[in-house]
Amino acid sequence: MFLEEYDVIVVGGGHAGAEAAAAAANMGSKTLLVTMNLQTIGQMSCNPAMGGIAKGQIVREIDALGGYSGIISDKSAIQFKMLNKSKGPAMWSPRSQNDRMRFAEEWRLALEGIPKLDFYQEMVGGLLIENNRIAGVKTSLGIEIRARAVVLTNGTFLNGLIHIGEKQFGGGRAGEKAATGITEELTSLGFESGRMKTGTPPRVDGRSLDYSVMIPQPGDERPEKFSYLNTPVLEVQRDCYMTHTSALVHDLLREGFDRSPMFNGRIKSIGPRYCPSIEDKINRFADKDSHQIFVEPEGWDTVEVYVNGFSTSLPEDVQFKALRSVKGFEKVKFFRPGYAIEYDYFPPTQLKHTLETKLVENLYFAGQINGTTGYEEAASQGLMAGINAHLKLNEKEPFVLKRDEAYIGVLIDDLITKGTEEPYRMFTSRAEYRTLLRQDNADLRLTPKSFAMGLASEERMKRMERKEQKAASFVSFFRETSFRPEDINPILERLDSSLVKQPDKMFKVFSRPHVTMDHMLQLEPVSRFVEEHDLDREVLEQTEIQIKYSGYIEKEKLNADKLHRLENVQIPPNFDYSKLKSLSYEAREKLNAIQPVTIAQAARVSGVNPSDISVLLVYLGR
Amino acid sequence: MILNDTIIALATPSGAGAIAVIRISGPDAIAVAAPFFKSAFGKDLLQKKSHTISLGHIVEDGKLLDEVLVSVFKAPHSYTGENVVELSCHGSPFIQQQIIQLFLRNGCRTAEPGEFTLRAFLNGKMDLSQAEAVADLIASDNAASHQIAIQQMRGGFSNEIKELRAELLNFASLIELELDFSEEDVEFADRRQFKELLGRIQRVLKGLIDSFAVGNVIKNGIPVAIVGEPNVGKSTLLNAFLNEERALVSDIEGTTRDTIEDEIAIGGIGFRFIDTAGIRETEDVVEGMGIKRTFEKIEQAQVVLLLVDGPKLLGNVDKLKRTTDEFDKIKAENPNKPLLLLVNKSDALSDTDKVAIDRHLGKVSYISAKTGEGIEDLKQRLLQFINTGALRNNETIVTNSRHYDSLLKALEEIEKVQLGMEEGLSSDLMAIDVREALYHLGEITGQVTNDELLGNIFANFCIGK
């Protein structure tokens, strides 16, 4: 029924599993995707949206590396927004609203198009491990499927427990069974496991809502997209809507607090602080009598609507009564109530930078099993695990991204170095050098690396090179070409910027605050250059950023070099920290457990302070 | 570097003294010393409590080396944070070496320069700036620089920076929060408070930076050039300050061929007197070079004393004129530098002589380096020239050029943030400058690791510290 032995088996078909399977198979590994339900591959379990602040940058990085999340998002988008456009370019964050059903369908079709990828639907209930090395998986039917590497992407399914009010039942997602067996097997091997919690809001019937009293939230006038490839740009978009809770809504919700699993002690595990349930928000911000609610369509055609901001595990009758008091929701009909879910995760400090476990060779973890939250975080881990599983089987160097190279690098380094006590979500502030990690340059940063190891396609590489060259020549054009005062002064006058008397290089005036590419395009030589060289929007954007923010970008590069000095001081493998009595006790414990590879990584371990690092530097002869 | 062995070194200056202190530090410090120490009261050193002193003898193979006092400090409550034994022995170099050699043969290793302080630092007994202050403290030879070093060693200065840095860090995280949650309705950083904080940090940094100029002269001594023709008594004046014969004095003109420097504490402030070769026209090549150097020294000095021979001025119009010219010449080149015209050998001048000199030279000060007349008055005038307000007010003074450098860089970044706020710069870009400021402040307090610094700091020590 199966190949005698697969190179890679991926367990789970969510964002992490789909990316992992695609990457491994595309790089040439014979890959099998095993999932409990082949109908829910690429399922968006929570909100029907991709990207957002820091997360949008990750989607673009996945795309630049040759992953699918960007392409799938573009193909299934119903709305696109570039968030934070008024801030510096590091903050520009793409986000799309997506058609939930099409998103999953596009994923399924994309995976089916990969020749080396096989599929099988069944629950994996056990692992084959021989001499601390993974040898395959065992299904609930007792079938043993052999593989040289296994990637676990179980999401919220491991011993998943769903809570709605006082009711609780096993399940990995609404209407889907939980997965059992794997946690127990791994803990018996010495893995440490924990419980986390997350939640989701009710889904409602859009026909029952009164949109006329809500505030429309349209997409961008000139929508962009995620993929650096030639995916479609939205021509028509669907609006979202905003409404607010009220004191009355809060009172109605409070009435159910004694039956809330969050407050009566039934849920003990920690949920994401940054994505709180509505009861949590009311409880923590007691003085606020109104919270935002975003009403998000679930697709082009469906009437189903996602009530963003109203995540809850209160009893369904309380949810219903309270939501009916929200403006525009007076006649709301539920498709299904919101719920909370508890699930097993494995503290990610048990992993190496490749996401391979330290305990079992060739076993990889990706996604929520590592304590993260979010589609983008999961997908990027899946991609990296799939890549590294393939590379290791082929005795190639591991593919590890540094913290100043990609958000993905920050994500994985944070996870394996610091671990996480609550579901980990990416923020721009987690990156020390976010000015380097922009959504506009993910291709420049990452595509060459991916192309070199055989994942990113030649087409992708060529597009990147073209963009790089065109932007470079446009930047030099601004550096070398002078303006005439009589041409530029009318523009400067309108901007309230001081006028110029002498001709000077365009670069200078372009660097001024408030002067944008649109202004520069009003100059005839600039618009002529754009036309003659057939420069597209991406090149214009890239050029503008490279000119206007060159000072900050250079500064961040210098700072990143500082980091690299310590990044280059290697710590020998299996270093015994307990013999360094001058390290603090906490530092010794943590460092022994995590075994950082470099001094810089050691410095990021929580509980390790600068004097501990000084001790290490002295010991290592620096 | 191995840091879990036991080290030994002489902690007092090498050479003979009444007593010498030998310091042993490391996990085995007490165990190493115990077998060779025979207590006068039959007590075992291993059984002694921390922070106790025992009288006894150092005995090797039944042979008595010396009578000693042994202080025991147990980890972590010692200077290094390790077990420490300090042996006060008699101060002959021979005894010192006998005892040190004994312990070197029995499990100790000679300490590297600064290794005791390095260990103290690595064991968390002091932060970087405190460790640096130890070096300054050891080197300090006047009350003012001693006071500064003590203050720094107690962490006063780095504590102040630490507090400001913590406040800035707090604001930095609010800005980050604001950036990452710009889509949600959360409370943001209060710009007015932030501006106020930046202003406060700016003031503190500026104050500290300004104090460096004061601190630096205090640490190194305030340079005072003594200028005058040969044999006017420059060396004698110096000796009058010193109250001891240090500079070479003779009656042959031009004996002091080179500049000689000497530091003397007056009123708790260190003054570095630079005895110059005088500025007489000369054919002598060696002396000519000395004169050139005199002008360089005037340049470097904070105060200039022009010294003339009183009796030789009497009735010598040429000399009087030359003195006025010299005075004017120095004044013209250094208009803001305090310059005093001192007429020496006042013991050989009558009141009438003084009136005559005053008539030509205006207001001058009469001193006699020989009898000490006017010296006390001169000391007071020197003190008045120096702005010691900061010292008297017990303010923080920066003397370390590494700190000075970091303070300058931090201030530059803080001012960029202030400018950015005025221009409405996007906060993600402002955050870059804030992070940079935090980095430089952290460099001072040791809250960021800078591997380059580590080696430098401990290299400034001598062995035994």
TrEMBL record, chain A:
What does the UniProt entry say about where the protein is found? Cytoplasm
Highest taxon in the source lineage? Bacteria
Q: Which SUPFAM superfamilies does the UniProt entry name for this protein? A: FAD/NAD(P)-binding domain (SSF51905)
- PROSITE patterns assigned: GIDA_1, GIDA_2
| BP-aspect Gene Ontology terms | tRNA methylation; tRNA wobble uridine modification
* An example Gene Ontology CC term for this record: cytosol
Residues forming the tRNA uridine 5-carboxymethylaminomethyl modification enzyme C-terminal subdomain domain are 547-618
Q: Where does FAD bind?
A: G12, G13, G14, H15, A16, G17
Q: Which InterPro entries match?
A: FAD/NAD-bd_sf, GIDA_C_N, MnmG, MnmG-rel, MnmG-rel_CS, MnmG_C, MnmG_C_subdom, MnmG_C_subdom_sf
Task: Please indicate if the UniProt record lists Signal as a keyword.
Answer: no
Entry GO MF terms: flavin adenine dinucleotide binding
Q: Does the keyword Ribonucleoprotein apply?
A: no
Q: Which residues bind NAD(+)?
A: 271-285
The UniProt entry, under Pfam families, shows: GIDA, GIDA_C_1st, SAM_GIDA_C
Task: Identify which cofactors the protein needs according to its UniProt entry.
Answer: FAD
| Alphabetically ordered keywords of this record | Cytoplasm, FAD, Flavoprotein, NAD, tRNA processing
Q: What does the sequence similarity comment in the record state about its family?
A: Belongs to the MnmG family.
Q: What is the recorded function of this protein according to its Swiss-Prot or TrEMBL entry? A: NAD-binding protein involved in the addition of a carboxymethylaminomethyl (cmnm) group at the wobble position (U34) of certain tRNAs, forming tRNA-cmnm(5)s(2)U34.
Q: Which NCBIfam families match?
A: mnmG_gidA
Instruction: Indicate the quaternary assembly.
Output: Homodimer. Heterotetramer of two MnmE and two MnmG subunits.
Record protein name field: tRNA uridine 5-carboxymethylaminomethyl modification enzyme MnmG
Query: Coding gene?
Result: mnmG
From TrEMBL, chain B:
**Which ranges carry the TrmE-type G domain?**
221-387
Stored InterPro entries: AAA+_ATPase (IPR003593), G_TrmE (IPR031168), GTP-bd (IPR006073), GTP-bd_TrmE_N (IPR018948), GTPase_MnmE (IPR004520), MnmE_dom2 (IPR027368), MnmE_helical (IPR025867), P-loop_NTPase (IPR027417)
Binding positions ((6S)-5-formyl-5,6,7,8-tetrahydrofolate):
R23, E86, K125, K465
**Which major enzyme category is it?**
hydrolase
Q: Which GO terms describe its cellular component?
A: cytosol
Positions contributing to K(+) binding? N231, S250, I252, T255
What start-end ranges are recorded for coiled-coil regions in this protein? Answer: none
> Main localisation, per the record?
cytoplasm
Name the residues that bind Mg(2+): S235, T256
Per the UniProt entry, the Enzyme Commission number(s) are 3.6.-.-
Q: Where does GTP bind?
A: 231-236, 250-256, 275-278
Requisite cofactors: K(+)
Q: How is the cofactor bound?
A: Binds 1 potassium ion per subunit.
Q: Which domain of life is it from?
A: Bacteria
**CDD domains recorded for this chain?**
trmE, TrmE_N
Q: Which GO terms describe its biological process?
A: tRNA methylation; tRNA wobble uridine modification
List the keywords (alphabetical): Cytoplasm, GTP-binding, Hydrolase, Magnesium, Metal-binding, Nucleotide-binding, Potassium, tRNA processing
Which terms does the record give in the GO molecular function aspect?
GTP binding; GTPase activity; identical protein binding; metal ion binding
> Which compartments does it reside in?
Cytoplasm
Q: What family does this chain come from, according to its entry?
A: Belongs to the TRAFAC class TrmE-Era-EngA-EngB-Septin-like GTPase superfamily. TrmE GTPase family.
Summary of subunit composition and partner proteins: Homodimer. Heterotetramer of two MnmE and two MnmG subunits.
Q: Which HAMAP family does this one have?
A: GTPase_MnmE
- The protein's name is tRNA modification GTPase MnmE
Q: Which organism is it from?
A: Pseudozobellia thermophila
Q: What is the lineage of its organism?
A: Bacteria, Pseudomonadati, Bacteroidota, Flavobacteriia, Flavobacteriales
